[in-house]
Design a protein that fits this description.
Elements lengths: L2 E12 L2 E12 L3 E5 L6 H8 L7 E6 L6 H4 L3 E4 L11 H12 L6 H7 L15 H12 L6 E5 L7 H16 L3 E6 L2 H7 L2 E6 L2 E7 H5 L4 E6 L2 H9 L4 E7 L2 E6 L5 H10 L4 E7 L3 H10 L4
Parallel strand pairs: 3-7, 3-8, 5-6, 6-7
Antiparallel strand pairs: 1-2, 1-4, 8-9, 10-12, 10-13, 11-12
Helix pairs in contact: 5-6
The protein binds adenosine-5'-diphosphate and magnesium ion.
Amino acid sequence: MSTILTINNLTKKYGLLTAVKNLSFTIEKGNVYGILGPNGSGKSTTLGIALNVVNKTSGDFKWFDGKVTTHNALKKVGAIIERPNFYPYMTAYKNLELVCKIKGIDTSKILEKLELVDLIERKDSKFQTFSLGMKQRLAIASALLNDPEILILDEPTNGLDPQGIHKIRALIQQIASNGTTILLASHLLDEVEKVCTHVVVLRKGEKLYSGRVDEMISSHGFFELKSEDSAKLITFLEAHPSINKTVKKDDMVTAFLKEPLSASEFNKQLFNSGIFLSHLIMRKESLEEQFLKLTDNPSA
Ligand code: ADP
Ligand code: MG
């Protein structure tokens, strides 16, 4: 597997405020990464540092194998970190032509990219006649003109209507399926869940979780249990090979699973050990609950 971007103990301070704190993660080729966190959690700052538009306070990042300068590496990166801005009176096609001229790339890919973002029929329309979704798609076409190794998007669906959001998400998935690595920042959990294979969860500039999205979702759940003899119950749970952690609160005992176990099988095991339950519920946290717990818990 080849590495596109390595971020190592990155910190950014604005005066007394630490916007990004000791952040480390790696972007591998071919995956779709989401940086997920509430507003103000440091997503844009992190992207800005990697793209050389924000100065880091400390730490490191390196593009690709680290042997090229950031300046040269960024020629293989397509990024949209601001609202798409083109010349309003110029057509979509002419705007992209100008981008090619400025970046010194040839114009051979313009039609192909307009086709990809579904703007080919509007190629001769002025930019100012475009909806926000179309503007965003034109920006994506523009960022792809030189076939970058990675496409970076900051809150790509902000401000769009539901159809516009759907279209951008489908487009991102299509670009990823063509082999382009993607890194997007979003405060929307469902966006990351739908579009990304990997996630870095940030809160107040600190990484709370990073890993595969499906592994974040696939927690095995937990049992809520009550028994007259809760001491015996807890002893049993603590020795149980499928149980990770046991928490007692009032007369309710919560047992977290580290592997799948059905409620009926579990109940049978308890019964056979002479433990009788007055309450048994199996629950699973949704990704949303896990995310809210991660980002809202001040002691996390
Ligand atoms: P996000 O993109 O996750 O919403 P940002 O990276 O934009 O978060 O911001 C992280 C924190 O840094 C916020 O508290 C924000 O107010 C602060 N911040 C961002 N840019 C600046 C700046 N240029 N000067 C001072 N503070 C800033
Ligand atoms: Mg932001």
